[in-house]
Amino acid sequence: MGWEIRERAAGQVTVVELAGRITLGDSGDGVEERLQEIIQGGVRALLVDLGGVEVLDSRGIKALVRAFISMQKRDGQLKLMKPTPRIRQVLDITRLLQVFEVFEDEESARKSFGEP
Question: What is the number of domains present in the chain?
Answer without folding.
Answer: 1
